[in-house]
């Protein structure tokens, strides 16, 4: 997406796959403006942001602990842990590294404000927090982290402490509501609606224990972890065991209060930062490695504190054991680095990524669907059909797989089968605008123009800003020689996407057919300027008909 004012407005007024992340999308637009689709630029940005985040983590932990050794251990673990790979290696993980950069900057600014009582740091913290939630809504936890820092520093709980947090909480509330609206607007998302409240408590417990386990033993990592299936109306036993273990850990953390606030701080930092993704009220993926990017700082802080405590207190006079502890830490760093290196290989391309998921979880419909998309993009349609069919075997209500089967059969020229699959998609989700659009396209190809227009109109009723559907309906009107209506639709498509080259080209044809040659020339030039492959025969006809007067 280019950097026109129209597109910038669109960026800040549109959800992207249920998420409101305008600052993240804007960062992609900046890269596209300078580097187009060169993946090296996008990957480099992610890596640079991660490196800056490592520096900010070191700085933050030093401000919290006044101890360079604790800062070093925390930062090393944060930097190289295998759970980092998804956020850094995946270009779409930009939102995690970007929001984290701003989140950490805002937190450091607040700590400077708290320490020096200089108001400019307060406003800087607020400004960076706003940018952070614009990068990713997960930053709404920030005000609670501020209160947690006040707790760590024994700051007196009073009216002033709460008043200074009000702007942060107001912003968090606004963006929290926006995030919920975004989830409701997304038509193809996994939900926890089949689980009762106690089930969700068990799922939260399982999620917490899962993250703790993966941080301690980062094996069998995947870009996708499936939802649990109930057995006889109950979740698997591991969820009940997880609840018991988490309750025990909570009790243990509470018992440390009389000795230190650091364990409670690290634990609550982890819990608060991960809270939006623990499935109590949110829909979406159950667990993801990227969710732990910021929350893990709290856990690594406790590990760093524990290492320093052992090294300086318990082993103070035993040099051999101190050396052993150092060797253990070096060994941990070496093992984590090795796993991280191998994990990066999995993210080589989409095929290696989804093959890895299916190696670990062979019954995951999302993985079959996404692998099918890879085959579709390669033009290997028979293999794509096999993958989408497998996805539906494991989830007969998987609307996206029905849709993908439909467009694959369309690409193969099997229009009847394509319509059947798109019908199934619309039975599962009657508000699936893309399915109406593509079924309308197919009806147009087979000459059933009334059905085509009806479907495209339904798509536009669901999504009034659907530029492609306007263009397709315009093409259909053109086929039945309703050129004025076609021009209206092409114009509306361009109003919603002013860089839509195909709409310019088709409007040029419509203008030509009603003998408005000047307007036809204007649109042809615009479509050519946008790189659209203009038919040379049409150009020759336009030249001859208009007698070259308007070139």
TrEMBL record:
The chain crosses the membrane at residues 12-30, 97-115, 121-148, 160-182, 194-213, 234-256, 262-280, 292-311, 323-341. The keyword Transmembrane applies. TPR repeats lie at residues 365-398, 399-432, 433-466, 467-500. Keywords: Membrane, Repeat, TPR repeat, Transmembrane, Transmembrane helix. InterPro entries: O-mannosyl-transferase_TMTC, TPR-like_helical_dom_sf, TPR_rpt. It comes from the Bacteria. Signal peptide: none annotated. SMART domains: TPR. PANTHER family: PROTEIN O-MANNOSYL-TRANSFERASE TMTC4, PTHR44227. This is Uncharacterized protein. It comes from candidate division TA06 bacterium DG_78.
């Amino acid at each position: 997406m280019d950097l026109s004012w129209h597109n910038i407005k669109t960026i800040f007024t549109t959800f992207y796959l249920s998420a409101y992340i305008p600052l993240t999308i804007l960062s992609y637009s900046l890269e596209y403006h300078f580097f187009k689709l060169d993946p090296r630029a996008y990957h480099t940005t992610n890596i640079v942001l991660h490196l800056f985040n490592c520096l900010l983590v070191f700085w933050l932990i030093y401000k919290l602990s006044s101890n360079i050794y604790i800062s070093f251990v925390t930062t090393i673990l944060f930097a190289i842990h295998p759970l980092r790979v998804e956020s850094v290696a995946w270009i779409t993980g930009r939102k995690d590294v970007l929001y984290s950069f701003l989140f950490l900057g805002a937190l450091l600014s607040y700590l400077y404000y708290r320490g020096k009582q200089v108001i400019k740091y307060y406003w800087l913290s607020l400004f960076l927090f706003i940018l952070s939630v614009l990068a990713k809504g997960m930053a709404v936890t920030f005000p609670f982290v501020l209160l947690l820092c006040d707790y760590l520093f024994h700051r007196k709980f009073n009216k002033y402490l709460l008043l200074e947090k009000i702007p942060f909480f107001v912003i968090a509330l606004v963006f929290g509501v926006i995030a919920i609206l975004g989830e409701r607007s997304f038509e193809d998302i996994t939900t926890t609606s089949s689980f009762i409240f106690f089930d969700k408590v068990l799922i939260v417990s399982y999620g917490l224990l899962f993250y703790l386990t993966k941080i301690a033993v980062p094996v069998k990592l995947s870009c996708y972890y499936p939802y649990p299936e109930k057995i006889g109306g109950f979740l698997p036993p591991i969820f009940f065991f997880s609840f018991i273990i988490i309750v025990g850990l909570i009790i243990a953390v509470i018992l440390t209060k009389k000795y230190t606030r650091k364990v409670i701080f690290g634990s609550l930092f982890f819990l608060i930062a991960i809270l939006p993704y623990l499935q109590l009220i949110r829909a979406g993926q159950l667990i993801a490695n990227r969710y732990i990017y910021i929350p893990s700082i709290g856990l690594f802080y406790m590990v760093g504190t524990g290492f320093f405590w052992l090294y300086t207190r318990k082993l103070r006079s035993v040099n051999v054991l101190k050396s052993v502890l150092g060797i253990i830490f070096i060994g941990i760093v070496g093992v984590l680095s090795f796993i991280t290196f191998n994990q990066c290989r999995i993210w080589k391309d989409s095929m290696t990524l989804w093959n890895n998921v299916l190696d670990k979880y062979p019954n995951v419909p999302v993985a079959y669907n996404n692998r099918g998309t890879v085959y579709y993009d390669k033009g290997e349609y028979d293999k794509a059909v096999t993958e989408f069919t497998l996805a539906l075997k494991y989830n007969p209500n998987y609307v996206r797989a029905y849709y993908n089967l439909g467009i694959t059969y369309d690409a193969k020229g099997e229009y009847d089968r394509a319509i059947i699959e798109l019908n199934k998609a619309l039975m599962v989700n009657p508000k699936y605008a893309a399915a109406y659009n593509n079924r309308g396209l197919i009806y147009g190809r087979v000459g059933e123009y009334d059905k085509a227009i009806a479907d495209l109109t339904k798509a536009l009723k669901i999504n009034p800003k659907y530029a492609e559907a306007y263009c397709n309906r315009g093409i259909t009107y053109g086929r039945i020689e309703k050129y004025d209506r076609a021009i209206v639709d092409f114009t509306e498509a361009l109003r919603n996407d002013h860089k839509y080259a195909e709409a310019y080209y088709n409007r040029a044809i419509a203008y030509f057919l009603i003998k408005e040659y000047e307007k036809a020339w204007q649109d042809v030039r615009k479509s050519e300027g946008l790189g659209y492959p203009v038919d040379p025969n049409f150009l020759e006809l336009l030249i001859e008909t208009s007698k070259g007067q308007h070139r």
